[in-house]
Amino acid sequence: MALGTYALRGLYFAIIEETKTPIQLTGTLVGIISVVGFTPDIFMSLFVGYMLGENPTIIEYQHLFSYFSIIPIIGLLATIGFRANLKKT
């Protein structure tokens, strides 16, 4: 978990540096990016609780892990789409 958290921080500091954002805005941008980047952590426990229900069975766990496999694929497709869009401009 910590590795993912620090990897995300490294990414947004790299993005801020590459965009040559003034140092006065760095704190504000880090706050905004953190809210957006860590928002899934807020809802994940609610989502897992909803998915597993009162008496979790193997089927519910399989559905949960299926969703956990689909979500990164959607993120990868979005990244590929954004990258293709950037190359056009």
Describe the SSE topology.
Elements: H1 2-18, H2 26-52, H3 58-88
Kindly describe this structure.
- Keywords: Membrane, Transmembrane, Transmembrane helix.
- It comes from Polaribacter ponticola.
- This is MFS transporter.
- The chain crosses the membrane at residues 29-52, 64-86.
- The chain has helices spanning 2-18, 26-52, 58-88.
- Helix content is 84%, strand content 0%.
- The radius of gyration is 17 Å and the shape is extended.
- The longest helix is centred in the last third of the chain and has 31 residues, at 58-88.
- Helix 1 packs antiparallel against helix 2.
- With 89 residues, it is mainly α.
- The model has no long low-confidence stretch (mean pLDDT 85).
- The chain has 2 domains: 1-39; 53-89.
- The chain has 3 helices and no strands.
Helix content: over 70%
Radius of gyration: 17 Å
Helix/strand/pairing category: mainly alpha
Strand % is under 5%
Order of helices and strands: HHH
Can you count the helices? 3
Distance between the termini: 36 Å
The geometry reads as extended
Low-pLDDT residue intervals, each spanning 5 or more residues: none
What's the average pLDDT? Answer: 85
- Major sheet: size, sense and barrel closure? none
Count up the domains: 2
Count of distinct strands: 0
